[in-house]
Every structure is written in structure tokens, then in C-alpha cells.
Amino acid sequence: MIKLLLLVALLLVSGCSILGSGRDIPEVKPVEVVTVAKKAPMYHPPLPNNIDSVPVEWTVLNPELMQDYLDDLNEGNAPTNVWYALTTKGYENLSTNMAEVKRYLRQVISILKYYREIDNEEQDEDK
Length: 127
What we know:
By secondary structure, this protein is mainly α. It has helices spanning about 1-15, 65-75, 90-125.
């Protein structure tokens, strides 16, 4: 009886492998791996806010205005103002500095526009 149980257990474990299979094993096609290199999108920082200038009141002191101020000051009616003065050379230097700031800003904006155009062209090619 034990021999019969062992034989049945052996047949159950081996299953149909003893008899063979009428099916053919299908061919497996090799997997093709394709790597697509795609550049990360370029970051475009936003342009800075526009400059909101505050109006400045300029007073040009000539001898007549200065004498009026000194007379009012001696009478005690003059406001206590602080006066700043620039020499002609100092004003030229200030003007040159402001021109340099404008030049720098124009160049930075043109560089930003250049990189944005390149990125737009690359995005159009990818589509």
C-alpha cells in the first residue's frame, strides 16, 4: 500500500512532464532598449520689475537766489534746507554712471532674450 501511495504521489508531483507536451515553446523576441536623450528645459528667470522713479525737485542756485535765501535766513524766515552741490565734473561723472547702468541693463535684457529664443526654437523642434 505504501508503494502505491508513493507511486501516486510521484505521478502527482511530476504531472504531465512524464508524458511530454504537445505544445511547442514559442520563440521569444529580444527586447529592444531605446534611449532618448532629451535636454532639460531651460529656466527663464522673469525680467525684473520696471523702475518706478520718484520725482526729484531740483533747485538751481544762482547768486540772486542765494542772496534771497541768505536775507531770509538772517531775518529768521528761511527754512532750514540742506543743499547739495555738484561740480561740472561731478555732474559729468554722475551722467556717465547712469549711462553705464542703462548700457548694462540693455545688455542683460538682450542676453535673456537670446536664451529665450534658443529655448523656443528647441521646443518647436521637439514637437
